[in-house]
Specification:
The complex is a heterodimer of chains A (about 375) and B (about 220). Chain A has about 375 residues and is α+β, with helices and mostly antiparallel strands. Chain A contains twelve helices and ten strands. Helices cover about 55% and strands about 15% of the residues of chain A. Helix content of chain B is about 35%, strand content about 25%. In chain B, helix 3 crosses helix 4, helix 3 runs parallel beside helix 5 and helix 4 packs across helix 5. Classes of the chains: A alpha+beta (about 375), B alpha/beta (about 220). At the A-B interface, helix 1, helix 9, helix 10 and helix 12 of A face helix 2 and helix 3 of B. Chain B: InterPro entries: AAA+_ATPase, ABC_transporter-like_ATP-bd, ABC_transporter-like_CS, ABC_transpr_LolD-like, MacB-like_ATP-bd, P-loop_NTPase. Chain B: GO terms for molecular function: ATP binding; ATP hydrolysis activity; transmembrane transporter activity.
Chain lengths: ~375, ~220
């Protein structure tokens, strides 16, 4: 009797609306975190593919994720070029911008495409080329462009100097959240000739690990292969994934308690009605089913509301974090989560309703 | 053939304790199909309790109840619920209608519980509402009608699944005398159509309309 279940839900509009809101917030929170985790995995996969055959060289004890500013001598570039099996070397200088979310990546003007080891595609404008060596020009990622509302032709301020945006990357590039500028221009305004990272492209991919070890032992620096980086990224992603489950679990508990509380109040208020239903021939199962139906409808409405909320949440996140997007998978998770939650947490109240003694209930006012 | 038969029916509260109390004391009763019975007695004598036991809403401490010659103590809760849906129709003093539902939905409810689809259940409910003189009020809420009309709704609901027996517990207890007379007339007509009617009442005028009066005192039949 779905029609009766729906009608019953309208009897306590405020209470049920608050319960729905509780479920919706839980679902939206869970989906947003899962979308970040999924986005990270996609980024790792894309990054890992792009970094095959590239060794990342950093000062000893440093990590690519925490590296910013000048920390490596330019002399290392020449040292590395002389290693056997090295195809070419890309010096890189990067600084974290004051907004703390984006990087300005100083890249050699002739190696922009190879910089992140992937085929960079320009959506708007043009790529930095050799003629831009000392020019204050920039290419921006799609996420940066959306988040900062910046486009080709606009100016970006880096360390007090204006850089002209000459191009915008296509969506899906791993540098989506960042800015690429000529390395010489960035080092000039930073007043340094030191490097943040050196990327070394090997000629034989099979020998990547071996050459990395060689660089490490000879020069006393960190030399990470794509496998090391993917592993570190994966660890980070796993932590975010774990957090998603913890937050999901907590929101499930809070949402679930809300559902159970609402259902217990419904049972308590409708004790006499349950007695009447039993007196005119409703079985325990019929009563149980009726209350479960009501809880499942609550869960479904909460789930759908949560999915709608998460569309907005994920959209905002996607402006800041690359690869974050609403997927069919997330919609499925949201619905499953809300329906599971409402079913599990309403079983006991529904069972309590089914067990109501008709004689006692009929005397209940 | 009796439609209801009881053997040594007893209802004892707090059995074996200091405050043990017998509400029904060994009642033997036989009611034939089509009878109109009034169960009377002073307040608290056990007449409503007897009705609750017969209707399977409550369970006896001892003794046996046969409904259409089937002993009900051996029945499961689901079988008893089926009996209440199919064999009995209930009319209570407090009406016992579901306030959140409309008149139509209240009357259709026993049929919906019988798994009849919504459209068919409501079609029959409309017919029954017309029969009790409430045509045009199908979509009214229970709070929008008078006590007499509520009891008519209760009668319509009692008739939903074509019951063999109607059990009416003080059906006029909460009504003015004019409405009370109308309700008894409706119940009388139902009995004339072949439905067994058992009315619990302390009103002798109503009891006198029955063909048999069973008088109860302190949980025992003293007459009838």
């Amino acid at each position: 009797m779905i029609d009766i279940a729906l009608k019953n839900l309208f009897r306590n509009k405020t209470r049920n609306a608050l319960t729905i809101l509780g479920i919706a917030i839980g679902v939206a929170l869970l989906l947003s975190l899962v979308s970040i985790s999924e986005g990270m995995n996609k980024m790792i996969s894309s990054f890992g593919e792009g970094m095959v055959g590239i060794i990342t060289v950093l000062p000893e004890g440093k990590s690519l994720f925490t590296s910013t500013g000048g920390q490596l001598s330019r002399n290392f570039v020449d040292d590395m070029k002389n290693f056997e099996g090295v195809d070419y070397v890309i010096p890189y200088y990067g600084i974290l911008l004051p907004d703390m979310t984006s990087y300005a990546m100083g890249v050699p003007v002739d190696k922009v495409g190879e910089m992140v080891g992937e085929k960079i595609k320009i959506k708007d404008g043009r790529m930095i080329d050799e003629g831009d060596k000392d020019e204050r020009v920039a290419i921006i990622g799609s996420t940066y462009s959306n988040y900062k509302n910046t486009n080709t032709g606009d100016k970006i301020n880096i360390l007090g100097k204006d850089f002209e945006v000459i191009g915008k990357l296509e969506e899906g590039n791993s540098g989506a959240g960042d800015i690429m500028v000529p390395i010489d221009a960035l080092q000039e305004i930073s007043k340094t000739d030191k490097l943040t990272v050196i990327f070394v492209r090997v000629s034989d991919v099979e020998r990547t690990e071996e050459i990395a070890e060689d660089i490490k032992s000879t020069l006393g620096v960190e030399a990470e292969t794509s496998k090391d980086l993917v592993r570190k990224f994966s660890d980070m992603s796993s932590q975010i994934g774990f957090m998603a489950y913890v937050v999901g679990g907590i929101s499930a508990l809070i949402g679930g308690i809300g559902i159970a509380n609402t259902m217990f109040m419904n049972v308590s208020e409708r004790r006499r009605e349950i007695g009447i239903m039993k007196a005119i021939g409703a079985t325990k199962n019929m009563i149980l089913k009726q209350f479960l139906q009501e809880a499942i409808i609550l869960g479904l409405i909460g789930g759908i509301t949560g999915i709608i909320l998460s569309f907005f949440g994920i959209y905002v996140l996607s402006l800041m974090i690359p690869f974050v997007a609403m997927t069919l998978n997330l919609i499925f998770i949201g619905l499953l989560f809300s329906l599971g939650l409402s079913t599990i947490f309403s079983v006991y109240p529904a069972y309590a309703a089914a067990k109501v003694d008709a004689i006692v209930a009929l005397k209940y006012e | 053939m009796p439609v209801i038969r009881t053997e040594n029916l007893q209802k004892i509260f707090n059995k074996g304790k200091k405050n043990e109390f017998s509400a029904i004391k060994g009642i033997n009763l036989s009611i034939d199909e089509g009878e109109f019975i009034a169960i009377t007695g002073p307040s608290g004598c056990g007449k409503s309790m007897l009705l609750n036991l017969i209707s399977t809403i409550d369970s006896p401490t001892e003794g046996k109840i046969y409904i259409c010659e089937k002993e009900i103590s051996k029945m499961s809760d689901n079988e008893k619920a089926t009996l209440r849906r199919k064999i009995f129709g209930f009319v209570f003093q407090q009406f016992n209608l579901i306030n959140s539902l409309t008149i139509l939905e209240n009357v259709a409810m026993p049929m919906r519980l019988e798994n009849l689809n919504k459209r068919a259940a409501e079609e029959r409910a409309r017919y029954l509402i017309n029969q009790v003189g409430l045509e045009g009020k199908e979509n009214n809420k229970i709070s929008e009608i008078s006590g007499g009309q509520m009891q008519r709704v209760a009668i319509a609901r009692a008739l939903a699944n074509n019951p063999k027996i109607i059990l009416a517990d003080e059906p006029t207890g909460n009504l003015d005398s004019k409405s009370g007379v109308q309700i008894i007339e409706i119940l009388n007509d139902l009995n004339k159509s072949g439905i067994t009617l058992i009315i619990v009442t302390h009103d002798l005028n109503i009891a006198n309309t029955a063909r048999r009066i069973i008088k109860i005192k302190d949980g025992e039949i003293v007459e009838g």
